[in-house]
Amino acid sequence: MSVFMEDLDAFTYRERLATGNRLVIVPVGSVEQHGPHLPLTTDVLLARAVSGRLAQAVGALVAAPVVYGYKSQQRSGGGNHLGGTTSLDATTMIAIARTLTHEFARHGAEGVIFLNGHFENYQFLYEGAELATRELAARGSDLEAMLLSYWDFVDDATLEEVYAGSFPGWDVEHGGVLETSLMLHLHPELVDLGRVMDFPPAELPRYDLLPVRPELTPASGCLSSAARGSAGAGRLLLERTTTALTEAVDGAFQRNLVASTETNP
Amino acid sequence: MSVFMEDLDAFTYRERLATGNRLVIVPVGSVEQHGPHLPLTTDVLLARAVSGRLAQAVGALVAAPVVYGYKSQQRSGGGNHLGGTTSLDATTMIAIARTLTHEFARHGAEGVIFLNGHFENYQFLYEGAELATRELAARGSDLEAMLLSYWDFVDDATLEEVYAGSFPGWDVEHGGVLETSLMLHLHPELVDLGRVMDFPPAELPRYDLLPVRPELTPASGCLSSAARGSAGAGRLLLERTTTALTEAVDGAFQRNLVASTETNP
Amino acid sequence: MSVFMEDLDAFTYRERLATGNRLVIVPVGSVEQHGPHLPLTTDVLLARAVSGRLAQAVGALVAAPVVYGYKSQQRSGGGNHLGGTTSLDATTMIAIARTLTHEFARHGAEGVIFLNGHFENYQFLYEGAELATRELAARGSDLEAMLLSYWDFVDDATLEEVYAGSFPGWDVEHGGVLETSLMLHLHPELVDLGRVMDFPPAELPRYDLLPVRPELTPASGCLSSAARGSAGAGRLLLERTTTALTEAVDGAFQRNLVASTETNP
Amino acid sequence: MSVFMEDLDAFTYRERLATGNRLVIVPVGSVEQHGPHLPLTTDVLLARAVSGRLAQAVGALVAAPVVYGYKSQQRSGGGNHLGGTTSLDATTMIAIARTLTHEFARHGAEGVIFLNGHFENYQFLYEGAELATRELAARGSDLEAMLLSYWDFVDDATLEEVYAGSFPGWDVEHGGVLETSLMLHLHPELVDLGRVMDFPPAELPRYDLLPVRPELTPASGCLSSAARGSAGAGRLLLERTTTALTEAVDGAFQRNLVASTETNP
Amino acid sequence: MSVFMEDLDAFTYRERLATGNRLVIVPVGSVEQHGPHLPLTTDVLLARAVSGRLAQAVGALVAAPVVYGYKSQQRSGGGNHLGGTTSLDATTMIAIARTLTHEFARHGAEGVIFLNGHFENYQFLYEGAELATRELAARGSDLEAMLLSYWDFVDDATLEEVYAGSFPGWDVEHGGVLETSLMLHLHPELVDLGRVMDFPPAELPRYDLLPVRPELTPASGCLSSAARGSAGAGRLLLERTTTALTEAVDGAFQRNLVASTETNP
Amino acid sequence: MSVFMEDLDAFTYRERLATGNRLVIVPVGSVEQHGPHLPLTTDVLLARAVSGRLAQAVGALVAAPVVYGYKSQQRSGGGNHLGGTTSLDATTMIAIARTLTHEFARHGAEGVIFLNGHFENYQFLYEGAELATRELAARGSDLEAMLLSYWDFVDDATLEEVYAGSFPGWDVEHGGVLETSLMLHLHPELVDLGRVMDFPPAELPRYDLLPVRPELTPASGCLSSAARGSAGAGRLLLERTTTALTEAVDGAFQRNLVASTETNP
């Protein structure tokens, strides 16, 4: 049975939440250029897919995604001046995270997991969750929010396997091997490998300048090359990440978590 | 070729926007209970589908959807106290509409159409678009925003055909014949007609009370019965609505609009 | 004795609130052009007058009015581009409704009724009252807010009597028969019937465009003609509306409501 | 002819503004306890009356009043904990002043004068006007905002005449001789001198404590006694103040200001 | 031992707060031109120094200062158009006061004293403290906030001694005798008496105009002359003010306050 | 001559800014526990000191510091639940960065450099600077904002020299070798090495949990041990960092930057 709230009617959702582990995973993405070979909603699709795997594994539900994210920054996403990239301000992202935490608490959730798929979102999700959990605690609720970016759960061995020593760092992974491989595994029809621009990793300064100087972003909009990407690497990354995330959620919420197929027959 | 931004890479999106009619349609939905027979994201799915048909007809692009909407109100959506319904505050909705208008203006759009699929959203989208277009006009931009709810384009003849005299009013159409028929036509796998609760239309007072009194909302969460719904009625509603919307957009933007298959070969 | 807070000193106000039905009615208006024959504060004057009648009938007090309202929209008030129309932003209207609800709760009110006289205000009053009542409920208060627009309490029989089959719909009633008749009955010195521009009802599209296209608004600024208006119709409308409102408030607050002259000797 | 916007239709308002001195005076008051002998809206009534006199003298128009004001502070108004006192937050007051400045600029005003009748409002009106005039200047507008509290225009000779050496300071004038005398002159039907509590001026500390300690506020809610108030003193205060304000406005806007009866025949 | 939080490690701070009088004094200043003879952070330095003396006397701790303040106003600080003056908006000042009150409450403080050194800040600190103490009270906290401007504690005898009959009023004391004398006493290395411009006190109107008319501010940026300032006067002012403040704090918090050297051995 | 705005009068500041490189460096810190051996304002002191060195080298001025910063997060600063840590919300930090950028632009600065000394601040400074530079660009200003955290300019060779292979990562450097060494070099009187708690680096999870679980933070509040810290390492770190920052600023602003002692004789 589907773990995605989007596929459920309200009666089923309520029953699943009440009888399951009371965990809701919120995938958070962005609408952001990802070069000529990946779709604009790559971050949404990947956050949603990882959330689905994780929800299956721990008996959680997946909320409808937060589609639009915070502004793309030049050092991690090419910059928000690029056409197609469509972003929200900080206060809006904060408000979204804050309100959704309150709403899932109202539904009876005991844990809300923001699973982030867009580097720039993190601090704003943090602030929203911080405000909401503080407000909830003041009213006696013990809801916990968990925040994470899925790539932080790729271990060094997997990095070595996938990148063979050429891992350029997460900051310039934008539109690179990780995202391309995962998309090739999950949504191959939306990837056009023939359009990959094979540049060496971008060398961006250790500071930000605003307004951005467009010439610092590579022509591709990607910060490292996706040429090494493959569906096989994508499958591997997804499996390893899901396993590590499952352990993390299991540990954090200290429960006997069982796969959703069992808890929700 | 797809009119959905979600399916396009940034390079293609930019080219399509620059060479097309420079119109972007933003579907706006909600995550809201729609009774036991429809999924929580019914409003998103319908706004997105109507937007796609309209975009095909007028040569526009469809933005990634605004998934979460304003709070469900008891007289039009059953109330925001119900489990599953997951909503944003007014200021957040306003900020989303305001920022997206600015972002599509930055991309080079000349018209942004907010196609609303959730009754309660309208005034907040209006405020966001009003603020943004005023700010843009002060800088010399002549971007225009258009706001509409798709059901306002169902004409009386179609209402008569679909409802056979039993049209209960748009305010109580929540989870009723219109939405159910459209879903049966577009996403039959997400509808379970066997779970429809066949009540007469809800009789709600001419005022709002807050906090809501839950007993005023029917047990189904729907404000009128979907029992008369059918895929055929859905197809008819979609066709008629698309035609009326196409005329409206054509008239509003006073252009020689051609179907996107021609303008974007 | 006056039911208007504006006429009372604080000691009397406190006593009246403590010994009466603990209901406060807040009239909400606007400063908005109403054609060449009605004053700019028509909505304030009418909301205030209806509030006074209702307060007399149910034993409530009338708060000082909220004078400025939300922006006039082209399809219901001619548009906010017109000279004389002077409006507040959405967040300000929300803040006003939210704060006033809290303030009257602090005074000891058990019910706060926002009696709206300007079409465009409703959703923003709703949001303000929603936020305040939620916050109050979290602190153990059981204050209830009621929201209504007074014209929703004009029944079909009265419409038929007043309009004789020519009722154009509430959305285009701006500056039309209802408002003009009520003003003729209540404030004849502020109405100049000789300046009425007798046009057929405006035909506005089913969508909003921003910035508004001024040419869509009739030269009068009114959306339907006031030529049929009369003091007699005004008296009838006021009586019928007051009666219906009294029943509604009585029903909503489920009390033995007695006229204020009795409860507050 | 009336100088009050509230009495004018939009066509007349526009003509008056276009052909007059293009000055709009906005009276700003409060809903605040003023002891047992004065009504809750004393500040609104006085600001409105002074504005009317000033408008007559300088050829300006008077906007509809800002009725609700900033919170009453213990050292100048008794404190916001008192029943009947009904106040807005700082950000709301700022937003009101900011938006109204923009709105009157849109109408074609060249000067907006906030005539304050409630001590606590001043800094928030200042901030609103500061933000708006800065924004307007950035767009090329040269609208000027003027801010003043009317009692600052009572000269020492008049103070001596009215108080005969017992002037207690403006901070504790709340509900005292000035306001009571003006009300006796302007709205005697709303004053009940028999209810004046004749205490010596309150001795409040040189600091604020929050939450306020209610016992520091006199039982009357007034900070000085109104017993010396008289209609004659009120007339004198109104005349002198109007004269001084007229000179100030004349000087500030450096125009040949003529009484409105002449400029607007 | 230092009473300044800035000099303490967290462990020592916690111990001092827990075993002392649980009072935290927050010095609030500004970055504002103070003429050619005083540094831009004069208000910060003075608020911090007075806070230190007061903390010693009453057994409190001094928080790190709020360095930037509200906009300089022409009638009290020369105006915010002047180079060097660097100010925050009202909502930011309010947020700072609100948040700091909450933070010190979280640390276990029972009283938070905002000791203001910049005329224009007061109302915004008030609003922030008002919001925070109301929120804290709703949660059962009995934290009290105290707000004061240090010059309000200079008594008439001292004024006479220092100004010898020429006291120009606090509003035009900006960069004048008080601040210069205190700086000569406390930070003589930052004062250059040779650069004092010896003008008579500025004669500013009884109203504000925005945008400000720069020609109304004296060329020095000071509103009265500092020529009479001396280190001796500074010492006297500091001593007298500290004594009066100590009495006020002692009285307000009604405790047996002992000098910090004793309570924190 | 001092490069610190805090030491300058307004006339000197204006002259220095007008005749120098028109760069203003804003040190941004925090009030945050840094273990038992470092003062609460360590981040302010270090950001200020590095800013001073940099300003000397490139001919810039140093603004008064932003003292309070964003909430301490458990994975980079121990968490905001700890006593002594005193933080602002995200929207306040954003507003501060936004307003200061506007203020220095008004003074005539062409570049504003936010030199960050507290890990958690970065994204909020970015948002503030992004909003301000966008607004300024819309008005024709070409002011540029630069954002950086000073530790990002410590190169690998220096890390090796200082840590001898034991560098634990910047995220857990809180209260560790870098900060302690710099403080020993710059403010030895505020460091108490005898109080260092010598634990191995904290092992925090790859996610955040809110409310934080206090037991995850080491008892010291530090995330790695400062035992290896020394004044010599501090001097080395300061020199190398200043050199790298100077090159970065020189490169970014592409000017012939000369040391301030020459440009401002």
Provide a short characterization of the protein structure:
The structure is a homohexamer of 265-residue chains. Chain A is α/β, with parallel strands linked by helices and 265 residues long.
Labels describing this entry:
Creatininase (chains A, B, C, D, E, F), four-stranded parallel beta sheet, 265 residues, 9% strand, homohexamer, alpha/beta, 9 helices, Rossmann fold, hydrolase (chains A, B, C, D, E, F), metal-binding (chains A, B, C, D, E, F), disordered C terminus, globular
Q: In the CATH hierarchy, what is the architecture of chain A at level 2?
A: 3-Layer(aba) Sandwich
Low-confidence stretches of chain A: 256-265
Task: Quickly name the level 1 CATH class of chain A.
Answer: Alpha Beta
How many β-strands of chain A, per DSSP? 5
Major sheet summary line of chain A: 4 strands, parallel
The total count of helices of chain A amounts to 9
CATH fold-type name of chain A: Rossmann fold
Q: Please, what is the CATH homologous superfamily of chain A?
A: Creatininase
Chain pair sharing the greatest interface: A-B, 52 and 52 residues
Instruction: State the end-to-end CA separation of chain A.
Output: 8 Å
Which geometry of chain A do the CA atoms define? globular
Strand order of the largest sheet of chain A: 2-1-3-4
Please tell me how large the radius of gyration of chain A is: 18 Å
Secondary-structure class of chain A: alpha/beta
